[in-house]
Amino acid sequence: MGKISTVLRHDVPLEDKNTLHLNAVAKNFYKIHKFGELKMVHKFYRQLYKEDKQIKLLVIGEGSNIVLANQDINALVVCPALKGFYIERQNKDEVFVNCSAGEKWRDFVIKCCQNGWSGLENLAGIYGTVGAAPVQNIGAYGEQVGDWIYKLKTYNVKTGKYKVYTAEKCRFAYRSSVFKTKHPFEMITSVTFRLNKHFILNDSYAALAAKFRDVPDYQITPLNVAKAVTEIRNSKLPDVNVLGNAGSFFKNPLVSKERYEELKKKYPDISAFDDDKGVKISAGWLIEKCGFKGKRKGNVGMYEKQALVLVNYGGATYQEVLSYAEDVKKAVFDTFNIELEAEPKIIE
Ligand code: EPU
Question: Would you please indicate which residues are annotated as catalytic (active-site) residues?
């Protein structure tokens, strides 16, 4: 654990605090190690607010789903390094596990699997913290975290008040929740997950099903699924410590069934999957088709093994990232008449 400081730090470089490794600087920065320090964050916010009524809050966990779209971040940047998890209650089928916001998501998933609690195993290996996971409703391999969240607690740095949100109130949707666009002064402090004691494999994702095709049932455990998922991820996605990135840079766009049929006629190899509201087209396919897979411009490019991941080859500026993303969006729009939407949160 780092040293606990009771002072607000100023002009703190954020390059190692965001996985795209953009070199923005936080005007004000505070790392919280204990729940008791939240009151201090409230106090700091009030002091800053007196000087600047526009002052924003930016909560950074591992910074794995943000684009710092400015050099100077004029905000109170808070890093909630709150740790620990415990069982709130349980019955013969389910366990309700409360986890503090600052735990690393990938470590928490493994701990759940080791305890035989099932639900999160398909979400193994994802960067970020437990507190950040609900914000964009992280999802992978046929699962979304919102389906496993029972409730969560937030702290409002402006009012100094806690609030509890049931899963329903979080309004989880594809890579979205009420926290992505609303409640700018609330930070998630802990999340309660409702997990299964009895394991059911979700092998709806073909590459995962393939891993277990010839494996006897007794060897298919949450932990083995988590390991398989991590292997699949590692084979496609770049390691943030080697190549800066924020995971998928765009969402998979939703189109109507009719529009999909038209596209399919023109592009028989189009990659898409059914969704409740229509058909989701694989943005990676669209981007690859436009020739951006592995295409580098300056210090940025779309990853050679997964065209949906924008990577920083080192030293990229936010202008380069945004301008490259615009090039990609424009090419996809000009070719397919489909508008791509950024997936990470863009911090102006
Ligand atoms: N594809 C291509 N070219 C590419 C990449 C993908 O043609 O370069 C096509 C292929 O047909 C492939 C299909 O797209 O089968 C889907 O690709 P993949 O399974 O890699 O998944 P994705 O749709 O690109 C989504 C999530 C990922 C998640 C994976 C696996 C979004 C925005 N991304 O990617 O989440 O890991 O599914 O479930 O929904 C993230 O959100 O940061 C993230 C990495």
Answer: 175, 248, 343
